[in-house]
Write a structure and sequence with these properties.
heterotrimer; A: 251 residues; mainly alpha; three-stranded antiparallel β-sheet; 5% strand; B: 195 residues; alpha+beta; two-stranded antiparallel ribbon; elongated
């Protein structure tokens, strides 16, 4: 079954979420108001919980860290300590320092990842061709070559290159025809499943085969059935599961 | 009005099409012009290639398709390229072929060629002489083509205990992809039922 | 004396080599000239391609090799011709992990996880199977964890000549950068807590 709650992946982790909060709240990353950000962070965790999303343990560890920092910030500074150290030293002991450092370090690589993404797109605009088959030109006998270190990685890399290499499209006409049949077929399948069930079916269960094409076709089939008023869809609450059922004659 | 550089586009298309070549109809379709016009563009490019002696490639008509090919007078250098000891011990072609066999065995030559989009006789020969692959049987049906599979030497060569130790890859890729697709469609679905 | 048409020959060689590419050394060897001379011939051909706007192909340097590739501006036509590649673009998690490895290699999984603040097994696996990273050794000390580094395929995938061509790691990030990463979930999440 496919879980749709993957939207949690919108944040790569607690650091990513914190960066997002810092930006949304327009906070200075070097002077984070810990109380405010902790509150926001906890609301987020709570909401995830209410939405019954799996909360990765890292998110909880960060919540604890934030609370610890918050309580340290609230502790009154002892007079004697302030006397002993100069104010600069007191700054260095800011309980937020370590977190800020981590956030800044992480943000660097988040941007670097962004740069890589652009490079990836840019590279995608160039098309190459496979090496030509030059067998006719080769000597009859294979000369014995001294083996270089060919590793499993080399084979994997060659395979990936092959997968990335763009393939010529089959003639358009056959492509469309094939898909049209599939959607129709899938619509019939869905209808007979629903009628046999005589009740409602979880939307997720309409996607038993995790193949891209099947998901797309199923989805289009469902949309078409809704449009034709052959099935109805209900959702009891926001983010709740979606159910579909066949519309009975005369309903 | 925007000027479309037909020649540049056609050269790109022919290059990317490789050994499969393009029919006149295909060219017309992709360029979104009449076949007559497509024919003119092709003819023009053929002329350009012919006039310029510095070109190392030319357009040839083969089995109803147009394809790019290397000029015959450079064949001696291409021969040196093939026979060069500097050419990797296992070339890209051989590695690709080996990967396909490793992951899809048993498999026929025709099936391998369908995946690679190019002739695969030579890489198969290379792999056979290096004993990395072997014939493991015959396919059913007419022709009864040979089926290829990997050998014990293959495992040794890559330091694998058994074939199960090969890194699993296509599933993972597919899985991630499906997840993203599912998200996208779910969003659209939500929109469509909310409106 | 016979006049050798270096440009024509080089174009033939590059065309035949395809995406396997040719190193400078290899070109020099096949042309039977010094590397300096080979470099000049390549440079000349690069110029010729660049000057002639009617060309649809160009020379790119990828992972230490020279290859022919189609011009970027013709990408929209090529998209009509060929299926989009089999592999999906890398996920955000994979890109972050890869960025950390690229700039800090060799690096262990634990060190990567310290920077990202989350478990990184899955993206590491994805990157390994895509041959973008590999194990390059073992860390010293207890555990002797694997050290990861980028591969030649990494350079090819991102269109880089060599690892030095990686964009400089940003010191201070522009504030608006993270801002533009507005995502649907957060909006929905805000809505849901406001209602």
């Amino acid at each position: 079954m496919i879980h749709y709650n993957v939207k949690i992946d919108a944040f790569e982790g607690p650091l990513d979420l914190l960066l997002h909060l810092i930006n949304t709240l327009e906070i200075d990353i070097y002077d984070i108001p810990v109380a405010q950000i902790t509150e926001q962070y906890l609301i987020y965790i709570k909401t995830m919980n209410e939405l019954k999303l799996d909360i990765a343990s890292e998110f909880l560890v960060m919540a604890a860290t934030l609370l610890a920092i918050k309580s340290k910030m609230l502790l009154p500074k002892h007079e004697e300590e302030l006397d002993e150290f100069n104010s600069e030293m007191a700054y260095e002991e800011d309980p937020r320092d370590e977190l800020v450092e981590r956030l800044i370090e992480y943000r660097k690589y988040k941007e670097a990842a962004h740069d890589l993404k652009s490079l990836e797109e840019e590279r995608g605009l160039m098309y190459t061709k496979p090496p030509s088959d030059l067998s006719d030109l080769a000597k009859e006998k294979q000369p014995e070559k001294t083996e270089k270190n060919v590793t499993l990685y080399d084979m994997l890399a060659a395979f990936q290159k092959l997968l990335r290499r763009k393939k010529l499209q089959r003639p358009l006409a056959t492509k469309i025809a094939r898909q049209e049949i599939s959607i129709e077929t899938r619509m019939t399948e869905i209808m007979s499943e629903l009628k046999k069930l005589k009740g409602r079916k979880n939307f997720n269960d309409l996607f038993p085969i995790p193949a891209k094409e099947h998901i797309v076709v199923t989805f289009l089939a469902v949309l078409e059935l809704i449009k034709r008023k052959e099935i109805d869809v209900e959702q009891n609450e926001n983010f709740g599961d979606i159910f579909v059922h066949a519309i009975q004659e005369g309903e | 009005m925007e000027i479309i550089n037909w020649q540049s586009i056609l050269e790109s298309l022919l290059f990317a099409a490789g050994d499969e070549g393009l029919t006149l109809k295909h060219v017309a379709e992709v360029l979104d012009v009449e076949e007559l016009k497509a024919g003119e563009i092709i003819e023009e490019l053929i002329q350009v290639y012919e006039k310029d002696s510095n070109r190392g490639i030319m357009i040839v008509q083969l089995a109803g398709t147009y394809q790019l090919a290397t000029k015959k007078e450079n064949a001696s250098y291409l021969k040196r390229l093939v026979d060069s000891p500097n050419t990797a011990a296992l070339s890209q072609a051989a590695l690709e072929t080996l990967a396909i066999i490793a992951y899809k065995q048993p498999i026929t030559r025709v099936e391998i060629e369908e995946i690679r989009g190019v002739k695969t006789e030579r890489p198969l020969h290379t792999l056979m002489t290096k004993a990395l692959i072997k014939e493991v049987g015959r396919a059913e049906g007419t022709g009864r083509a040979y089926l290829y599979g990997t050998t014990k030497e293959f495992l040794d060569y890559f330091g694998l205990k058994n074939i199960q130790e090969l890194p699993k890859l296509p599933d993972r890729v597919e899985e991630e992809f499906v997840q993203e697709e599912a998200d996208l469609f779910f969003e659209r679905f939500q929109e469509s039922i909310n409106t």
